[in-house]
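We were asked to recover a plausible sequence for a given structure. The inputs and outputs are reproduced exactly as logged, with field labels preserved.

PROBLEM: sequence recovery
POSITIONS: 460
GIVEN STRUCTURE:
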């Protein structure tokens, strides 16, 4: 019973299929785990009172030999930025009315229900997902299972803390500048930001077309399985890609022999903590051992920080402008500050940033004619103290995430996979960036790395 919470989604489904595991026993074990650890980690801000009922319905379907879908009986958490019918989606903000109404499921929530997943509850987020750590005026500070004095990152920090602590087999996250990959790096998980539009999203993020939705898991195979469900079509997303009828698990184990990999330790401009840089450099050697052709090569673009800030800060301004003036004093002071800066951005400046964004995307399209993948550190640092937006010496979250946000601008698939621990026992992430729409290639390379360096969980 004590070990059920640690099983992967694939292991759970195989156990259900063989009638060796029960969705009820699994869900009960996970709920007990939440009851014990959530008061310490603050990963869930809502825990379902129907999870066991949903598990009982799943168990009946498995006993009848009629599972509902690809994830029947698998416990999953939903980030509290994503609409979930019947539950308030408060987005970490005191400005949102809990009374709703809450009549809609977002596309990913709807697909998970249709495939029988047991929805455990909503996971914490910074207010409106605006920064790369997880604390908010509404829910307080979320903590890292590897060291509770440290941040799990963000903005999908509650999802990451829950997953790393065994409070659910799968988690749904969002990524507008690194919000899946940042917490996966800091908590030792696998997380995929799919190509923009691969996973339908509705409503569109206040931060616009830099924001992706994707899977957070404890194995690459589970992410591929989850993507099979999350990537199903939904007509509400006007930006969605045409649905690709495929099993994302197909070809996962084909290896990476002769894959052309560019390794950039700093993108040509980023400052990286020496210990993080050393761990990543050694990890990149795994790809060579697996038969890939690795070359140290930066992609050759200038720091796109100003381009991203123009997109992100103007989005924050629009978000805050839509909130009633009398409620704005309830907002995170950092969000208000960013919104004030964003309000000064002119239409001409935003248009210029959009044009430069397009040029960056074209640059990376051309880069990937010569290289199948770009590999970098996921972050420039390991986990720092909880409750801070940035480590000492940095002001905004963008200042310590130089490897993640460029590829939200270009809309490429990118993943973080754990590649080692610091001397203090904190995880470090390896960042895999594929050509636009090359999600399968990113998954395959991550799977090859995972087989050589298996993912480990904290001892809790």
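RECOVERED SEQUENCE:
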């Amino acid at each position: 019973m004590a070990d059920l919470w640690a099983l992967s989604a694939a292991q759970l489904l195989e156990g259900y299929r063989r009638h060796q595991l029960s969705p009820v026993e699994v869900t009960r074990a996970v709920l007990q785990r939440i009851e014990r650890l959530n008061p310490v980690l603050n990963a869930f801000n809502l825990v379902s009172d129907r999870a066991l009922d949903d598990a009982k319905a799943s168990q009946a379907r498995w006993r009848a030999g009629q599972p509902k879908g690809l994830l029947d009986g698998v416990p999953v958490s939903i980030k509290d930025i994503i609409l979930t019918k019947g539950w308030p989606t408060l987005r970490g903000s005191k400005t949102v009315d809990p009374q709703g109404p809450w009549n809609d499921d977002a596309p990913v929530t709807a697909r998970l229900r249709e495939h029988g997943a047991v929805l455990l509850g909503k996971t914490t987020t910074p207010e409106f997902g605006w920064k790369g750590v997880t604390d908010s005026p509404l829910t307080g500070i979320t903590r890292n299972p590897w060291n509770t004095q440290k941040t799990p990152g963000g903005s999908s920090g509650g999802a990451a803390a829950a997953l790393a602590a065994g409070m659910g087999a799968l988690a749904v996250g969002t990524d507008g500048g690194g919000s899946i990959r940042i917490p996966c790096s800091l908590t030792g998980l696998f997380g995929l930001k799919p190509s923009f539009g691969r996973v339908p999203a509705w409503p569109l993020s206040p931060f616009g077309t830099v924001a992706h939705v994707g899977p957070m898991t404890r194995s690459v195979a589970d992410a591929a399985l989850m993507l099979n469900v999350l990537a199903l079509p939904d007509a509400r997303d006007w930006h969605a890609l045409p649905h690709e009828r495929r099993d994302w698990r197909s070809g996962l184990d084909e290896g990476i022999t002769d894959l052309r990999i560019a390794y950039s330790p700093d993108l040509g401009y980023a400052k990286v903590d020496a210990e993080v840089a050393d761990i990543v450099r050694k990890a990149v050697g795994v790809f060579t051992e697996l038969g890939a052709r690795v070359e140290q090569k930066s992609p050759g673009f200038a720091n796109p920080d100003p381009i991203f800030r123009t997109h992100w800060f103007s989005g924050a301004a629009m978000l805050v402008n839509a909130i009633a003036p009398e409620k704005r004093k309830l907002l995170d002071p950092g969000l208000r500050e960013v919104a004030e800066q964003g309000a000064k951005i002119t239409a001409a400046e935003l248009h210029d940033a959009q044009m430069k964004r397009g040029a960056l995307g074209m640059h990376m399209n051309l880069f990937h004619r010569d290289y199948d993948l770009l590999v970098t550190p996921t972050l420039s640092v390991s986990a720092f103290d909880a409750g801070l937006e940035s480590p000492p010496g940095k002001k905004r979250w963008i200042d310590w995430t130089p490897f993640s946000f460029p590829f939200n601008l270009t809309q490429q698939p990118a993943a973080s996979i754990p590649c080692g621990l610091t001397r203090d026992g904190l995880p470090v992430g390896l960042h895999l960036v594929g050509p636009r729409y090359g999600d399968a290639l990113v998954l395959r390379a991550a799977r090859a790395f995972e087989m050589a360096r298996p993912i480990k969980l904290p001892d809790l």
